[in-house]
Specification:
This protein is an all-alpha fold and 163 residues long. The chain is built from seven helices and no strands. The radius of gyration is 30 Å and the shape is elongated. The termini are far apart. About 7% of the residues have low confidence.
Length: 163
Amino acid sequence: MTDKEDNSLSEPSTMAETENPPHNQEPPQESKKPDKINVAFSIWPPTQRTRDAVINRLIETLTTPSVLAKRYGVMPAEEAATTARLVEEEAYAAAGGSPNADDDGIEILQVYSREISKRMLEAVKTKAASGSTADDAPQSPVAASVAASTISEQISSVKIESV
């Protein structure tokens, strides 16, 4: 070999040469991917772990300073645990059903969330009424709406797991 031939063999190829392979060569084949991926994702019914997380969040809301506690007072831990379980079970039963084939469960989850908010508010109102004092005036509809909205937001913050 001559020096010219050695240099031409060791010279790096240009970018155009590496990006555009010759027409007689096929480009490397990528792994074949299916045209359409069918992934079933449903958020209803929630797993037991998710339901337990909702109950724990409700207990936390009932036993610590919150919008509800400011208005209706804080519940003792045992009473809050019993109330939270009852509220969640009733809301789950009220939401009930299974999602339609075209539905991923979002509508049912929204019903579940609204039911929890409604039942939670009823529970704290009932508790406050049973032990009401002169300072415990009836709550205005606006304050009740804010409290229910806050509960719904807290429930929505719980991570929902698919089955």
